[in-house]
Amino acid sequence: MTTTRRNFLWPLLIVGVGVLMQLLATDVLPENVGDLMERSWPILLIVFGLNAILIDRVRFGNWLALGISLALLGGLIWYAYRIRADDMRQDYIEILNPIPLGDHIQGVTVNVSALDATVIFRPYSQEESPEPRSLGAKFTGSKESHLDVSVQEDEQSIVHIAVTEKRPNRIPNLRDIGRGQLEIYLPVGVPVQELNFTNKKGLVTLDLRQIDVPRFTISNESGDIDLYMPLNSVIIGDVSINNGNLLIVIPPQISMRISGAPESRELNVNDYLSVQGGDIESRGGLLEFQVELSVNLPDGTLTIKPE
Asked: Which are the contacts of 269, defined by CB distance < 8 A and separation ≥ 6?
């Protein structure tokens, strides 16, 4: 008596697809899973072809065909998300209109958290806002991103602004995913008592040439940072870049000390920079340092240029 081995692959695939469709119909799974299913249905043809080739040649050929097909599908989805994630998008715009800060405001604190945006800190231009003592923000990016903005004034007449980029969807839509640009407009003539910023990936520019900011902490996991230092401020700063380079543009008469400087350096000395051990010092003709920076730059190059 002979027994016929049944091929359970296709019945199981039909049941699995049916379960997924039912979960989507009842909103148990995110809507974007349905988008991925619509894009992935040709994988069934690959399963069918591999199954026909392997089933009589290799033991458990049907399951091997399914495994190869799922691995291929996973790799293609990962690659598609990766290449689309670097696209600059302009589908979603969030604007915090200029907020003029009255004469009673004693200072500002700024806390910004981005995901993978190009981020620019700068004051408003005259055309953007005639009042230089203004605070604001603008984000242009993907529909998959959302910007949370909070502005509060405390009893000491200090304005606190917090800006956070979020992606609410656990599985983003492949059609909408991408990077954005975040601009933070800092006030001129009002001390930015504290500036804290974190970013996962992207280019960052801090134009502090007109800004009074005594303390800042900047962290960027991947991407370069360009830092333009002011002329008349006393600053203590921490800068961390896990994978990227740091450019510091500073007036030559400013005294500066950098601790934790990396071995890879490009210094425009011009008789005002001196290197001592692992630190960099620029006295600028003064005894006290106006700028003290702590730098964590494990895999990048530090470049210092005069303004």
From this structure: none
Residues of the chain with pLDDT under 50: 1-4, 269-272, 274-275, 277, 286-287
Q: H/E/C letters for each residue in the chain?
A: CCCCCCCCHHHHHHHHHHHHHHHHHCCCCCHHHHHHHHHHCCHHHHHHHHHHHHCCCCCCHHHHHHHHHHHHHHHHHHHHHHHHHCCECCCEEEEEEEEECCCCCCEEEEEEECCCCEEEEECCCCCCCCCCCEEEEEEEECCCCEEEEEEEECCCCEEEEEEEEECCCCCCCCCCCCECEEEEECCCCCCEEEEEEEEEECCEEEECCCCCCCEEEEEEEECCEEEECCCCCCEEEEEEEEECCEEEEECCCCCEEEECCCCCEEECCCCCCEEECCEEEECCCCCCCCEEEEEECCCCCEEEEEC
Report field, pTM of the whole predicted structure over 0.85: no
Integer Cα distance of 149 and 159 in angstroms:
13
Per the listing, tokens 């991407």 go with 223
Q: Which tokens sit at 197?
A: 């910023």
How do residues 18-48 score in pLDDT, each as one tens digit? 777 777 677 666 777 777 777 777 877 887 8
**Domain residue ranges of the chain, discontinuous segments joined by +:** 9-85, 92-306
pLDDT score at 104: 93
